[in-house]
Amino acid sequence: MRGTCTDHQHPAGTCRLGDPSDPATVVGPDCRVVGIERLRVADAAVMPASPRANTHLTCVAIGEHAAALIRRGRP
Question: Would you name the residues annotated as active-site residues?
Answer without folding.
Answer: 10
